[in-house]
Structures are given as structure tokens and as C-alpha cells.
Target: Zinc ribbon domain-containing protein
Amino acid sequence: MKSIKPGRGPSMMGGIGAVIAIVFGIVWTLSAAQMGAPGFFPLFGVLFILAGVVQAAYHFKNAGSKNRFSAFDITEEGEEPDPLNERIGAEKERTETVSGAGASGYCPYCGAAVEKDFAYCEKCGKKLPR
Model:
């Protein structure tokens, strides 16, 4: 299994979209305040700005850094860790193994150990590729 990371191109496009959302939030907030709209209208613009800032930081980090956040946390031991897990302090998950059975592979969908002659994964039930 490999860690599944978002591509740099889609991350950059997400960052650009977040900047557009920030600009929209600023315009919305200023327009609503200038028109004398009720308080929740400018607040909506502020929330848009905050969400845009968080999204921009996430996407631009994934687009420009070597150690990107994983879209799905599926990694082998010794691979590049997900920086979000390091930041939170999450422990590494242990891979499930079939007790007593000589597992000869892993399910590409959920990562559970499976035997060579299995047609379906015991954990997720999906058909295994041959």
C-alpha cells in the first residue's frame, strides 16, 4: 500500500479557488456593511473569509511542500508519514493480520491481510484483483 496524496496541480487549483473565496468574502462583507444589512450578512462574509484562509493554507502547503498531507492515510511502515498525524500525535495504526494463516498479500482497498487463494477480502468484502 502507498499513501494516497493529492496531486500538486489540483492542490494549486484548490488554493487559487480559496483565494477567490477570500476575495468574495471581503467584497460581501464590505457591501453588506455599507448597505446597512442585518448583522448576520456581514458575519456570513467573515465566515467565508475564514474558511478561505484555512483552505488556502492547506492547499498551498500540499502544492508546494515535499511532505504533503495524505488524502487517505494508507501507508507502509518506513514510508513518508502524514504530517497531520505527526502534528496531532496520532499513533501508527497496526495492520490487521489473519491469525495463524499464512497471509500472502494485502487487500488493495482496505489493507487487510489476505491469503493468495481468496477471491474476496474478509474485512471489506470487495473482489480482489488477480
User: Anything to note?
Assistant: The longest helix spans residues 8-35. The chain has three helices and two strands.
